[in-house]
Write a structure and sequence with these properties.
The chain is α+β, with helices and mostly antiparallel strands. The strands form 2 sheets. It has a 3-stranded antiparallel sheet with strand order 2-1-5, with no helix packed on it. It has a two-stranded antiparallel ribbon with strand order 3-4. The longest helix is centred in the N-terminal third of the chain and has 10 residues.
Length: 82
């Protein structure tokens, strides 16, 4: 739609992150509790377990060992409006 006929938009997350950074729409990844109790942000950023439900922040993975249950991508509104 916005691209010339022979160009295409890459569908990998790494490429899309680079495109968003290039046009000034950087985002911040914030981990979330699996039960949607808290966001691991600001005062909870270094915690490994939710203080409300005591669920682990990460799910068990054999390869990487620390994969978050949920990730919220926060895009600040002020650069979008400029």
């Amino acid at each position: 739609m916005w691209l010339p006929p022979l160009n295409f938009l890459s569908l990998t997350c790494l490429d899309l992150h680079g495109i968003m950074k290039y046009i000034g729409m950087e985002y911040q990844s914030i981990h979330a509790c699996p039960n949607d109790d808290i966001l691991y942000y600001k005062e909870h950023a270094l915690k490994e377990k939710c203080p409300k439900c005591y669920e682990s922040r990460y799910q068990a993975d054999i390869v990487t060992k620390e994969v978050p249950h949920y990730v919220l991508c926060d895009i600040p509104i002020s650069p979008c409006l400029q």
